[in-house]
Amino acid sequence: MRPSRVAAYLLVFARTYLRSRVGLFFSLIFPIILILLFGSIFSNTGSSSSPVYVQNLDGTSVASQMFLTSLNATGAVSVHMVSSSVGNLSTWLVSKGYTAGIVLPAGFQASFAAHRPVKVIVYTDPAQPSTAGIVQGAVGYAVTSMNYAQSGQAPVVGTMELNVGSTTYQYIDYLVPGLIGFSILTSPMFSMTNIAAQYKKQKLFRQLSLTPLTRGEWLAASVLWYLVLVFASTVVMLAVGRGLFGATATPTLLTIPFLIFGPMLFVSLGLLLGTFSKTPESASVVGNLVTFPMMFLSGTFFPVSLFPDYLQAVAHVLPLYYVIDGLNNTMVFQNTTGALTDLLVVVGLAVLLFLAAIRAFRWQEE
Amino acid sequence: MEPTVEVQGLVKRYGPLAAVDGIDLKLRAGEVFAFLGPNGAGKTTTVEVLEGIRPRSAGKVRVLGHDPWTERAKLQRRVGVIPQDFSFFDKITPTEAIQFYARLFDKRPDPVSLLREVELEEKADDQFEKLSGGQKQKLGLALALVNDPEVLFLDEPTTGLDPQARRTVWTVIRSLRKGGRTIFLTTHYLEEAQSLADRVAIIDHGKIIAHGTPGEIIERFGRPQRLVLEGPPSLAKALEGWWRRPVSLVNGRTEVEVQAKEEILEVLQWVSASGLAWSGVGTTRDTLEDVFVRLVGRIDEGGSRASEPGTDAKGGRT
Ligand SMILES: Nc1ncnc2c1ncn2[C@@H]1O[C@H](COP(=O)(O)OP(=O)(O)OP(=O)(O)O)[C@@H](O)[C@H]1O
Ligand SMILES: [Mg+2]
Predict the structure, then answer these.
(1) Residues A148, A157 contacting (CB under 8 angstroms)
(2) pTM
(3) ipTM for the complex shown
(4) Which CATH architecture has domain A51-163?
(5) CA–CA distance, A248 with A177 (Å, rounded to integer)
(6) In testing the pocket of ligand 1, which one of B13, B23, B44, B85 has its CB within 8 Å of the most ligand atoms?
């Protein structure tokens, strides 16, 4: 493997890619559109924190004000007061199409002062699990802090509890690694399946076979180009996710191998699929058949943990699952052990497929 | 001295079809060798086997002493190639293409002078997909020269070029030959082969049907010299009845086969005495093209021929 030859082809490939623009759109611009789209639709943080409608049947009592202050302090929900004159809150929420509401019952203050149990009623929509989780988490926090205030202790534990609970992760936290995974998957897969068939048809492999460039050098240069794209895309995703939507995803040193072996895996897989296709058309069909299900089932747009069990089982045989799970483990959960397991799978598959691709694809003809 | 290219009993089968059916070839160092044959005769197949980009079914092949299929890496740096339908990366310019090849081959050619040599300097910075067919072809030639090869395989390097551009390619080929390179050329332009090649071989249906210098082939397979008379068809008719050798009507001219100077006089005296009308007179010999068309064209002797001199013989046979 001669670096100068790898660099020479990398330059040709990069020029081709940059000059055709379509590829660039799909690998850099399209994921930005996706994060803006999904981020705005599902995001619950900052100014777009979950709205919750509160009906206070206990007048302006001290206890109810305390509760609302605690609820506000979570920053996870935005409180909107609803008049008691609207009647049943549940009916009213449905009529307005709102998904979360709280009723502070009459006598809240009195019960609180008298140490009598009293229930705050929380309405959530099971069809909106992330909003429901956030509202329940926020209410739990407010309730806990009031209980601690009652017993005269600082609400430190309440705060802790909220931060380790699963509901504190916002949708956007999953979306950033998910969309980085999307870039790792789609740009190499779509273009390598196409290139394998197109180069054969245009006799470019024959042309390259007349030079000292080896197949390994050729494939290495292709992988390198997608590394560059994936790194660029990662930087953009992190900037948009954190800057616009308050995502907490933070890359660590362990994130980097995923950004290297991920593209290597899918460049090789794409080439393999393209090699076994007779025409560019069938190559793109095969590419789509493999890429799209993998894209939706590996946690790109939604965390796999939200899937029904049988789909979770499917996800576990998809290589992209381990890339995205690994990215989540390193960037969101700081779960090094989990990340290392994922990395083992990704590196193993990447090396295996890379070697298989070099062996399988020929640039001479029969 | 060892031949630069040596082929013995080469066979290449595609399924049941023997595209190349047991051919022998020998190229001497420094010669221009033209490989001729109708469409589908097996020229490209042979060349690709020699270039090491196609495996063979049987036979022995040596290029510069190496087996091109198993020892391809050893040959790449010493061999230059223009494939028949040369194509390149659509978005890359000729200058970039040459720089790319230069890096791969570890050479330092000057792209500007290389492109000037093939008369492509005007398009040096246009993307490949925007070049005309002939311009693409010229880039192919320039790329084949980047590694300063000892042997060149040029598969129809002038097909689709305008007459001026063809002459440019001829000039390049002649100067390569002067530089001691060995050139294996396929072409459908017979006059090109005749004027460029030291030796030619004609292949048909995968078998070599003639080989030698153009002169030798014409001598061996061509018809004898002919006397050409301009006159009405009745002249041909009358001569046909009298003369002991073949007489034919070609493009309105009467061609009378003669074997010696004396026979020319004999015919002219007879025509003059017959009182038949005639205007011009001259002699003609078969060109390589005439021989080629007769050998592979299955044209019946003495009948009118399908091909005009100087036209492309490509597609001349079905
Ligand atoms: N890849 C292939 N698979 C099957 N048959 C092939 C293949 N390539 C060529 N052939 C057949 O082999 C024969 C020789 O083809 P080849 O390309 O060598 O001809 P050629 O002499 O170069 O013709 P042309 O003058 O048209 O370029 C033809 O009959 C062709 O149909
Ligand atoms: Mg050919």
Answers:
(1) yes
(2) 0.76
(3) 0.80
(4) 3-Layer(aba) Sandwich (3.40)
(5) 11
(6) B44
